[in-house]
Amino acid sequence: MIDESGNLMPAAPFPGHDAVYASVQSASRSLLDRVMANAVAATDTFLYDICQQDQSGIGSPNLENLRLFRSVSQAIEHQYSRALDSGFAAFRRKLKSGDAPAVDLSLVDMDDIDDVVNAELVTEAVMRSSGDVINATAQRFCALLGLPSAEKASSPLSERKLAEYLRGALVGVQLPTKIRFMLFRNYESALIAALSSLLEEANEPMVKAGVLPHLATPRPTRRAEPPKPEAPAVAAEQRAHSERAAVPPEAAASTQRQRELGELSDLPIGSAEQALFLEICDYLHNWRPQHERAAAAHAGGFAAAGGSAPAPGSRHRLSKNETIALLSSMQRLLPEAVSSAMSASDASLSSSLKDAMLGNTRKIGLAPDAVEIDREDEDAVDLVGMLFDVLITERDFREEARQLMSRLVVPYAKAAVLDRRLFLTKAHPARRLLNALAEAIEGNQGDGPQERELLGKAEATVDSLVAGFNEDIAIFETLEQEMRAYLDQHRRRVDMAEKRAKEAQRGQERLENARMLAARELEARTGTAELPSVIQDFFSRYWTHHLSMIILREGEDSAAWGVALKLADDLISVLGWQPPEARVAAVQQLRLGIETVLSSSGVLSDSSSALIQKIAESAAHYQAPAKSAEQPATTAHSAASAGLHMAFDKSALDFDPRDVEYFKNLPVGAWLQMAVGNGGFAPIKLAWISPISARLMFVNRRGVRVLVVSVEELAEMKKHGKLIVHAEENVFEQTLDRVLHRLKADFS
Question: Nearest-CA neighbor of 435 among 445, 446, 422?
Fold first, then answer.
């Protein structure tokens, strides 16, 4: 039966439900066991390939990872099957127990947080792929066993259960985080590829048994079945061998580049990117003659003019294939001169890179002083050199990160020579990969295990690019997707850290505001009056704290707020009573209110009574000073409505009013760059704007609070060069903009 909300109501189980349920379980287990086996095999292959690429020897970390994974892979598959059977059994038991759906409120151990996040990613991917089909399948499961629709989430083939089976399989298994991550990703791919068959086989016996036959079951999106691993490798090798035999080397390389660029032909070239690129090239062509000779002569390079070098017009101009060959010869081992240029403030990375290329021309049978680089290719190499010059000097990279980034110079120079669209479209895979790598390592000090894992993933990505990039731009796409998936997992932790930072800042500001309002109320009542020290201490320590807590918990409109203010007014008025002896009794009449104030600070029982007695005695001995006729009376209302004062003196700040207006409209989520101790600039993100003080809170890439300022203070930082504002959010675009800025500065 269906209720008014469209949910399935509890009913009797279908006749023969045991046999149907067992049939579905058997078919599901058979298929899901194959899914798990495929995921394990894919992970094993991945680890083996890494060992092959870096020629890992005995005792190397990569080889140890492979051995460790192989030692536990059988246990993982066995535990997966057990977790699957347990899931089916747990849902079956609900028929007998009749309990209400359980709510999982268990705490997650910090050691398991990575697996939880990985499982969440699998859950989301499965839901995107086949959410409607899974929902229909869950409804049939509930109807088969006579359970209410509320139990759909507990279905053994729900998106969450399918992810949790792998999490259960890894319980007690010791594997590094990056291997667990890769296993989850391979499991996700294998599972989604098999979802169509899995859900069809699960629904078929239930429909035949008459379980909700009218329920439309949307067909899952089918994916092509993955081919057997041996076949494509053999076929590809045979095709490659026949192509190499039939086509000359230079023609083959040209054909390969045309094919690769054809695959990228749908990348949009933005007019803004094209205009920026042309402007940079114009400045570059004017900059090169003025700076190249001096830089080359300083480095002792082959580009230096003079001597017996042939005139430029008589030199052999390198073809694109020759330029690519020279860069390829430098890819695995960065020349020392290029590496040194990246750490020397007075050296040109572009010039050093070109000198190193020309120095390698003997490897292709040409004399270094008799060749020159084609202008278009030289533009590409120069721009990449300048790009990394800015990256290394202006971004917040520690020394290890700088060395890692330096290994990207040659692959990116080669990519730029192969495809100028690297500078013309934001969607270029090489751009996206550089953005992902910068996000992973910029500002990352490796303080915690997650940060170190992220650095390790970035290093592995660079290793793969350096080892595997020939002339196939597609490798950037593959590596970017892997890196981005890893970052998506890491970003969940960052989001949690950012949320905690916002909550902490919000709480801190509310407390500051509450204390300020309490102090204002006290100031309105006492002014410059000289109260007895005991009573002054009571107000400044206990009463203001009590008032702050009322503001935080109940607000200024609450009855408790009014009671606390009246207590202060009554206690102050007692000081003027005559005769003085009457003040003791008056204070005792206020005892209940005073005890309430003291209890909020933890002063109870005998301590409270002793303090009240001291207050009474101080009141009795108090002699009021003569009133000044010039002193105006103040009221509680005027103090409460006075509002917050600024935490700084705006008149002492030096800023441009236009910057203030800009920062007032800065949206949450916007990124800026702030000067840091190493001379570079670190990215900071606007995470929260205080509704109380209007101050802006910024976090770093790890979600940690690093700056809380007013818009005026932010404008002053910008004016004094401590803050960089970018129109673009991505590192590549920001760096190109800074390259243009440097070129313009050279001509100013």
Answer: 422
pLDDT tens-place string over residues 69-97: 999 999 999 999 999 999 999 888 876 65
Q: What is the largest CA-CA distance in the chain?
A: 119
Question: For residue 342, what are the contacts with CB-CB under 8 A and spacing of at least 6?
Answer: 349, 388, 389, 392, 402, 406, 409
462 pLDDT tier (thresholds 50, 70, 90): very high
Please give the Cα distance from 143 to 160 (Å, whole number): 20
Stretch(es) of the chain classified as CATH 2.30.30.140: 650-729
At position 345, the amino acid (one-letter code) is: S
Burial 420-439 (b: 16+ CB within 10 A, else e): bbbbbbbebbbbbbbbbbbb
pLDDT in tens, 129-188: 788 889 888 888 888 888 887 788 889 999 999 999 999 999 989 998 888 888 998 898
- CB within 8 Å of 22: residues ≥ 6 apart: none
Interaxial angle between packed helices 591-599 and 605-621, expressed in degrees from 0 to 180 and rounded to the nearest 10: 130
650-729 CATH, one of 2.30.30.140, 1.10.510.10, 2.30.29.220, 3.50.50.60: 2.30.30.140
Highest mean pLDDT range out of 6-10, 25-29, 140-144, 235-239? 25-29
The H or E element spanning position 723 is strand 723-725
- Among residues 708, 675, 702, the alpha carbon closest in space to that of 689 is found at 708
Task: Kindly state the average pLDDT of the residues 676-681.
Answer: 72
- Whether residue 388 contacts residue 350, with contact meaning beta carbons closer than 8 Å, is answered with no
State the Cα–Cα distance between residues 460 and 468, nearest whole angstrom.
12
pTM: 0.50
Measured CA angle at 504 (ends 503, 510), to 5 deg: 90
Among 403, 380, 418, 510, which Cα is nearest to 459's?
403
Across the range 629-635, mean pLDDT stands at 42
Q: How far apart are CA 117 and CA 140, in angstroms?
A: 29
Residue 6, C-beta contacts closer than 8 angstroms, at least 6 positions apart: none
